[in-house]
Write a structure and sequence with these properties.
heterodimer; A: 283 residues; alpha/beta; 6-stranded mixed beta sheet; 4-stranded antiparallel beta sheet; 10 helices; globular; B: 356 residues; mainly alpha; ABC transporter involved in vitamin B12 uptake, BtuC; 3-stranded antiparallel beta sheet; 3 strands; binds adenosine-5'-diphosphate; binds magnesium ion
């Protein structure tokens, strides 16, 4: 995991005390979650969740199964409306927004249980990610007006360019549902990138991948961050991946943040070791 | 590098258009040469109408993935508004083809309005409410049209809503020389039958262009994305209600145009012509042709409409045969073993496999 050390930024405090990588200190954070919480029939699935993510940071969200990690993603993307707290995306208060509106202000995600448009082709999936970037309406589409051809051509080129990140251009005309598992996970990332996000949320991107696929994924996550200059927050159980590429890590247990900090801090934090890493080793 | 290698979907669309055009030319020539039986000739326009109904319903059921059980309701709205439009323009517009075109547009517009009225409240809900609401819509439209009294004279259109059943045509107070267009439960009578096979062909082509081009465009992709995974569609910023409504209303409008063409093919039409059985028959065509498969709907519509006719020789048993054939086709098209056998008959292209 040391391989990546030189590519990880050092965490420094913002005036608000939140930690962000040094290079992001002079730009406003992409995400600020304050006192975020949700209850499901009395169960506090997420409680008093505070997190700030720098504009080009790779952040990790870890914790045992059922800790509330996916729920945090669902709160940030408004799949669930939080019962408490605020989420600022790029400084914009997302109070009252829905999933579609949050997507339009730059939050994209992948899903723990893959959710592709499985009867559509790989290229169509990516173009659907680009839906709000493609500018022509229903009638231009039906009549195949000049802007249909122009925009579809541009969309095709952009889609191919995005697929190239994962070397998937040759799969463009395959049905998404027919791809092997790993390729489906990669396609979800490409589709999310199609929305031109400022913050990319990856829910267990390496799940089901073999070690060499995971290593490749780590390189590609770094490449995505460096090329698009965006923030990435990922949930992952693969500690090599998390410790290797994440700059700031947030540990969740029973819906509460139990630790935050750099990979080094987290690895040596006794609370974390007890709650998470220790258990993991036994299992 | 593969620039001239047309996409598979483009090829399929092209073949669909070509098939329809060739079939039309052949039948047109046969009809004009007197080679078609009287009953066959009479079936051409209705078959065109049913093809349009099936393709349009496929947009809702196969492409959007929502079940509709009241497609005949939209057909009915289109039929009666088309009849009113055409009948009231007699003497105003001489050209029958122009009147027919206006009637089809009127049918499409009124059916689209009905589609918006049904769709807006229902499509906002999550869950399978559309089936039950469209079912009710189909029945309600029938009753509404049964209460309608419409006539025309030099002062314009006279419309009465005979909710209590106490009114008669006399209450329209038409001038001397005025014409009654719709007589309540007796339906529309004295219709000038201006529908033609050529108009049916043109309507099929327009329907195919609308549905096929839509599915290959940004909006159509969004509609199919909703079908495949609504949560993922929302996560990439697709407005669920907007695209559901777009598919549903387009589907209703096309059904309305088909209804107008159907209505203007007969001298008298009653509202129960477009009953629940017709909705189910259209749905059957979509299911047989394959969900989302447009050329499948075209063929299924033609076959299902022709079957009873072709089985006429068996007279009393023909409905029995009809049912048996339908059941066999259903088993065959949905049976995985059978599908596998079919799949093996068609050689796989090299390079179709993906290495993991
Ligand atoms: N829609 C829901 N209704 C009720 N409980 C839920 C819902 N979504 C999540 N939970 C509960 O919230 C807790 C956290 O779940 P989750 O966020 O999926 O955990 P993980 O950290 O493994 O991603 C679990 O106890 C789960 O059962
Ligand atoms: Mg989870």
């Amino acid at each position: 995991m040391d391989r990546f050390a030189h590519r990880r930024g050092k965490l420094v405090p913002l005036p608000s005390d939140a930690l962000v990588p040094e290079r992001d200190i002079n730009s406003s954070p992409i995400l600020e979650a304050r006192h975020l919480g949700i209850e499901f029939g009395g169960l506090k699935a997420v409680d008093d969740f505070n997190l700030t993510i720098g504009r080009t940071e790779i952040a990790g969200l870890i914790g045992p199964n059922g800790a509330g990690k996916t729920t945090v993603f669902n709160l940030l993307t408004k799949v669930y409306q939080p019962t408490k707290g605020t989420v600022l995306i790029d400084g914009i208060d997302t109070h009252g927004m829905n999933t579609v509106q949050v997507s339009k202000i730059g939050v994209a995600r992948t899903f723990q249980n893959i959710r592709l448009f499985s009867n559509l082709t790989v290229e169509e999936n990516v173009k659907l990610g680009m839906h709000n970037q493609i500018k022509y309406g229903m009638f231009s589409g039906i009549l195949r007006a000049p802007n249909y051809w122009k925009e579809e051509k541009r969309a095709h080129e952009k889609a191919m360019e995005l697929l190239q990140i994962f070397d998937m251009e040759n799969l463009a005309n395959h049905k998404a549902g027919s791809l092997p598992y790993g390729a489906q996970r990669r396609l979800e990332i490409v589709r999310a990138l199609g929305t031109n996000p400022g913050l990319l949320l990856l829910d267990e991107p390496a799940a089901g991948m073999n070690p060499s696929e995971t290593a490749e994924l780590m390189e590609n996550i770094l490449k995505i961050r460096d090329t698009f200059k965006i923030a990435i927050m990922l949930i992952e159980h693969d500690m090599n991946l998390v410790m290797g590429i994440c700059e700031g890590i947030c540990v969740l247990n029973f819906g509460k943040v139990i630790a935050k900090g750099s990979p080094e801090d987290i690895q040596s934090n006794p609370v974390v070791i007890e709650a998470y890493l220790g258990k993991k080793k036994e299992g | 590098m593969k620039k001239f290698n047309l996409k598979k979907t483009t090829k399929v669309d092209f073949a669909t258009y070509l098939g329809v055009i060739v079939t039309f030319i052949v039948l047109f020539v046969m009809q004009n040469g007197g080679m078609l039986s009287y009953s066959m000739s009479g079936m051409l326009v209705p078959i065109c109408c049913f093809i349009v109904m099936a393709v349009s319903l496929n947009l809702t059921v196969g492409i959007l993935g929502e079940l509709s059980l009241g497609h005949a309701g939209f057909v009915s709205v289109g039929a009666f508004s088309g009849i009113i439009a055409s009948q009231s323009l007699i003497g105003v517009i001489e050209s029958a083809s122009l009147r027919l075109a206006i009637a089809l547009v009127a049918g499409a517009i009124f059916a689209a309005i009905a589609g918006v009225l049904v769709g807006i409240p229902v499509l906002r809900l999550r869950g399978d409410y559309l089936a039950i609401v469209t079912l009710a819509f189909g029945e309600i439209i029938k009753d509404l049209i049964n209460c309608l009294l419409v006539g025309i004279d030099s002062k314009g259109l006279h419309v009465l809503f005979n909710a209590k059943g106490l009114l008669t045509v006399e209450d329209l107070h038409l001038e001397e020389g005025g014409r009654v267009i719709i007589k309540g439960a007796q339906g529309a009578t004295g219709i000038q039958t201006i529908s033609t096979f050529t108009a049916g062909f043109i309507l099929i082509m327009i329907t195919l262009v609308v549905v096929l081009n839509l599915t290959r465009s940004r909006s159509g992709r969004a509609i199919m994305a909703l079908r495949d995974n609504r949560i993922a569609a929302e996560s990439v910023g697709i407005n669920v209600t907007k695209y559901k409504l777009m598919a549903f209303v387009t589907s209703a409008a096309l059904a309305g145009a088909a209804g107008a063409l159907y209505g203007l093919n007969f001298s008298a039409v009653i509202s129960s012509t477009f009953n629940f059985n017709i909705s189910i028959e259209i749905l059957l065509m979509v299911v047989f042709g394959g969900l989302g498969n447009i050329w499948g709907s075209v063929i299924a519509a033609a076959v299902i409409r022709l079957l009873p006719e072709l089985l006429r020789e068996f007279n009393d048993y023909r409905m029995l045969f009809y049912a048996i054939i339908l059941i066999l086709v259903m088993i065959a098209t949905n049976n995985p073993t059978f599908k596998n056998m079919l799949g093996k008959l068609i050689p796989k292209k090299k390079g179709a496999e993906i290495d993991g």
